[in-house]
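#structure-requests
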Amino acid sequence: MRKLSPYLKALVGFVAPGAVVIGSSVLDGSDGGSTITAAELVTAGVAMIVTAAGVYGARNAPTRPEVEG
């Protein structure tokens, strides 16, 4: 798990937008909800790649030292 931990945020950033787009693709408002169109698949793929790249490229905030009280 330690080997994957630097990439977990990017992995979630990859899966989450794709799940949202695919989930909305099967609703009644989208082409009757019967199929996922090619345009919806392309939109999901682009959303997944762009979001994952942004999450992976963003730096983490520096950690604050523990304050003893």
